[in-house]
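Fold this: MYO1B protein
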Amino acid sequence: QDNSFEQFIINYCNEKLQQIFIELTLKEEQEEYIREGIEWTHIEYFNNAIICDLIENNQTGILAMLDEECLRPGTVTDDTFLEKLNQVCATHQHFESRLSKCSRFLNDTSLPHSCFRIQHYAGKVMYQVEGFVDKNNDLLYRDLSQAMWKANHSLIKALFPEGNPAKINLKRPPTAGSQFKASVATLMKNLQTKNPNYIRCIKPNDKKAAHIFNEALVCHQIRYLGLLENVRVRRAGYAFRQPYEPCLERYKMLCKQTWPHWRGPARDGVEVLFKELGIPEEEFSFGRSKIFIRNPRTLFKLEDLRKQRLEDLATLIEKIYRGWKCRTRFLLMKKCQIVIAAWYRRYA
C-alpha cells in the first residue's frame, strides 16, 4: 500500500520487461504474418513505450528530473521534486497529481497532496515522494571508499575498487536511479540479442495453500502479464507454424503419395498431404516459407494420426521380420531335410 522510491524502481524494471515482451512476442507475431504474406485481422495492443518514456526520458523523464533535483544547488526537498514533476508532467496522460495544473485531479480525495500516481501497464500505482531525493543520492563518500580499500582483508578491498588512489574520480558519484537505469539498459540490450522463451507463473492465492482459487487475484495477474492481448493475437492468427521441410518430414507417412519419399518442393508435398487428409482450407494457410495452422485441434489431429500410423508401421515391420525369420528357419530346415534324406538314401 505504501510505495516509495524502491517500488518505483522495481515497477520501472517491470515496465521495461513488459516492453521487451511486447516487442519480442506480440509485435514479432504480427510482423511474421506480414513477412510470410498471410492474410489476417490486425489486433491493436497497448504498447507501454509511452510509460517507459515518462520514467526514463533524458530531458522530461521522472528519473532525469529526480537527478536534476539532487544535483542542483539551493534548497532541495521532496516537495520541490514533486513541484517539478507537476510542472513538466502535468499534461501526460499517465501521470496524476493533486498539485498539478490538471484540474481533473484537484478534487481526487484518493490522491494525497504529497503523492503522485502513475498509470502503469498493470494499473495505477500511487507513490509517496517522501525519501525520493535522499534515496536517489545514496552517496558513498570518497574518503570512506578509500578507507575500505586500504583494509587488509582482500574481499573488503575488492568490494571498493573506486577507493584505489590510482582510480580517483573527482566527478560526483552517479545517483541510485541513474545506476539502476544503466543496469536495466544493459539487461535489455542483452535480452534483445537472445531468443527468450517465457514461462508465466500465476499464484492462485496469497496464502500459499492448496485448493484455494482467488479469481480476482488471478484476473489481476493475467492483465498484468499481458496474457489477454497475447491470447487475442494468437486467436486472431495461427496457433502453430513450421517450415515446410520439417513439417513434411514429420507427417509424410500419413499420405501414400508422400511416403516414403516425396520428389519435389516441400510446399507441394505439404499441400498434397493436407488435401489427402481432408483438412478444411480455413484451418491452414501457406506462407512463403512456412505452413500456418489456425487451431490447436488440427495439430492434435495430425499428431494422433501420426501416432496411429507409427503403431501401424511398427506392426508392419514386426510382421515382415517375423515372416523373414520363419522363412529363414523353414529354408534351413528344408535344406537339412534334403541333406539327411540324401545320406539316408545312400546308406539304404
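The beta strands are 95-97, 115-119, 124-128, 240-243, 284-286, 290-293. The chain has a mean pLDDT of 84.
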